[in-house]
Amino acid sequence: MKSIKVIALIFVSVVVGAVVTFGVMYLMNNKTVDMIRNNEELFIPELIDVSSLDEDFIITADKTEFEFVEGFKTDVLSYNEQGYLGKTFKMRKGDTFNPILMNNLDEATTLHWHGLETNGMSDGAAEPNARVYPGEEKTYNLEISQAAATIWYHPHALGTTASQAYKGLAGMIIIEDEYSDSLDLPDIYGVNDIPLVLQAKKFDENGNLAYGHHGMMGGTGMMNRSNMMGMMFEDGDGSNQSTTSGFTIMSNGFYIPYKEVRSEVIRLRLLNGSNHGIMDISTDTNDKINVIATDVGFLENSQEKDFMEIAAGERYEILIDLTSKEIGDEVNIIANGQQVLTLKINDDTDDDFDKPFTTNMISTLAPILMYEEYTGQATTNTFVLDNDQINGKQFSMNTIDETFTKNQIYYLEIDNISNKHHSFHPHNARFLIVEIDGEKVDPKDFGWKDTVYVREGHKVKVQVMFKHTGLFMYHCHILSHEERGMMGRFEVID
Ligand SMILES: [Cu+2]
Question: How far apart, in whole angstroms, are the C-alpha atoms of residue 188 and residue 470?
Answer without folding.
Answer: 36
